[in-house]
Design a protein that fits this description.
The protein is of the alpha+beta class. The chain has 13 helices and 20 strands. The protein binds tetradecanoyl-COA.
Length: 494
């Protein structure tokens, strides 16, 4: 996912523009009035049934020091559940757990500790470690029946080609998906965007998984998705699903529904013969393969300041700030143009070669490349530079992901372009990305966001990007390999 880790902390530039400071908040209180008591009981049953067999000895007392530690862990868990103290629920909890370190932090993840992922305290430096954690489960041993839902709730496979279903997904996410820590902005993935994100070649309807509430007329209350892909991890091709859009309605939060969603999608994916996954999240879970940062380039600094995304720096006037971020009307490179279907073979080859240089990247075939990179109005923009004899030398692209500006009088939407896949061979990456900024401004983006992945460090500072206030963690499921730096990452998830 494109984590909403917005708000510019600082522009590493002569005239820094700081955002309002971001205090961690408990965003995950279930504030709902919906009947949930029986759901909780049901969910406990679901979890007990769903958890894989505990390793021998797990859960048994191993002496008094272990007991003492268990009490501490219980207390930590209670504090987490109640959202109190410095270990308040939500993303701050996970991050805090991350810094507790070693065994303790690894032990408090009731769900994640049961999953084939490295423990948080586990350091993996050896680049020769690169393989599965659990072997594939033989087909005849796979669970055939779906995990049990709490009473009144039911699984629902969502047909994303139906506009009516897409509208339901849109509404769930628009009202309940990722917010920043201060609840000022919430992702507002458009319906055409969601359709694009969920229907790449060979997508599987069974991986677009919803939970409906029978008591409220079948209302969509939770969601998780997977799309099939091939990842290359340190030279090894791995069939994976990209997991995204995990969302539980605000009224059903902290009831352990998320683990059930994850287990059910894992079951469905396993049934299709896939045992690995890749995903990103703002929270720290066991265990990131890489920890990346978002950077933000103001395109409409006045609006960004008005909505509290960034703020006017001391000694900077609005006029000077606007001037600082001003861009030319047109790209510097006259041969930069929108990508068209006829460009696919050459642009695909250009990107495939470039991506092969990263430790974690997608292996896209031409059809997948066409799906992901060809322009779609309001969803994805892609540009190429060609030579007079028809060679494609450069490619840049960004996707459109607006956010709702929560409770603002004047502005409802923050229009953000997110850097996607870029390759520069006839110019520097900085020159190419400067043109990408101009193109983003031309389609009315307010801000251009980029992770510090791939070779993006080459341009972030010079093009006046400011660092955001959060991290985006990259994860592999059921795969163990040495940690990666942001510059090792050649994969962008939406
Ligand atoms: S990342 C985007 C996630 N979505 C949001 O942030 C939207 C707003 N938040 C919500 O909707 C809820 O707060 C969510 C949690 C749904 C996130 N990834 O049900 P709970 C663990 C994985 O009581 P809730 C994206 O979409 C948490 O550590 N796990 O909590 C990629 C705890 O486990 P443990 C997460 O707040 C998703 C448990 O859930 C996340 O009501 C990749 C608590 O459950 C998170 N982002 O709901 C999913 N947040 O006790 C994994 C919390 O162990 C895919 N948790 O710490 C794995 C691969 C599966 C396929 C494998 C195939 C082979």
């Amino acid at each position: 996912m494109a984590e909403l880790v917005d708000k510019v902390d600082k522009v590493e530039d002569p005239a820094p523009a700081l955002s309002k400071s971001s205090k961690k908040k408990n965003k995950k209180k279930a504030g709902g009035k919906e009947p949930v008591a029986s759901e909780e009981a049901g969910e406990a049953a679901v979890v007990a049934e769903a958890a894989p067999a505990a390793p021998a000895g797990a859960g048994e007392s191993q002496g008094s020091s272990r007991q003492g530690r268990d009490e501490v862990l219980q207390l930590v868990e209670q504090m987490r559940q109640s959202g109190s103290g410095s270990l308040g629920a939500s993303s701050s909890t996970a991050a805090d757990r991350g810094v507790v370190g070693g065994e303790l932090s690894a032990s408090v993840h009731k769900f994640w500790d049961t999953q084939p992922v490295p423990k948080l305290g586990e350091r993996i430096d050896d680049v020769d470690v690169n393989g599965v954690i659990e072997e594939n489960i033989p087909a005849d041993k796979l669970r055939r029946e779906p995990f049990k839902m709490p009473e009144g709730f039911a699984w629902s496979e969502l047909e994303v080609t139906s506009e009516a279903i897409l509208a339901e997904i849109y509404t769930l996410l628009n009202e309940n998906y990722v917010e920043d820590d201060d609840a000022m902005f919430r992702f507002d993935y458009s319906m055409p965007f969601l359709k694009w994100a969920l229907t790449p070649p060979n997508y599987t309807k069974e991986f677009h998984l919803g939970v409906r509430n029978a008591r409220s007329g079948g209302k969509l209350m939770a969601f998780i998705t997977g799309v099939p892909a091939t990842a290359v991890v340190r030279g090894k091709k791995v069939r994976v699903v990209e997991i995204n859009y995990l969302c539980v309605h605000k009224k059903l939060r902290t009831k352990r529904l998320a683990p059930v969603l994850i287990k059910e999608i894992t079951r469905r994916v396993n049934l299709k013969g896939i045992f690995q996954a890749v995903y990103t999240a703002g929270v720290v879970l066991p265990k990131p393969v890489a920890s990346c940062r978002y950077y933000h380039r103001s395109l409409d600094p006045k609006k960004l300041i008005e909505i509290g995304f960034s703020r006017l720096m001391p000694r900077m006037t609005m006029a000077r700030t606007i001037k600082l971020y001003k861009l030319p009307e047109s790209p510097a490179h006259s041969r930069l143009r929108a990508m068209v279907p006829a460009d696919v073979p050459k642009a695909h080859a250009l990107l495939a070669k470039y991506l092969s240089t990263f430790a974690l990247a997608p292996a896209l075939d031409a059809e997948e490349f066409a799906h992901w990179v060809l322009p779609r109005p309001g969803v994805i923009d892609a540009f190429v530079v060609d030579t007079p004899d028809g060679e494609i030398t450069d490619l840049c692209s960004f996707y459109h992901l607006p956010s709702t500006v929560i409770g603002h009088d004047k502005h409802n939407t923050l229009k953000a372009g997110y850097s996607f896949y870029n390759v520069a061979t006839s110019m520097t990456l900085k020159e190419l990305m400067r043109d990408a900024l101009i193109c983003a401004k031309r389609v009315d983006m307010d801000v251009f966001n980029a992770l510090n992945i791939m070779e993006n460090d080459q341009f972030l500072k010079d093009l006046k990007f400011g660092i955001g206030d959060g991290h985006l963690q990259y994860y592999l499921y059921n795969w163990k390999c040495a940690e990666m730096t942001p510059a090792d990452i050649g994969l962008v998830l939406l």
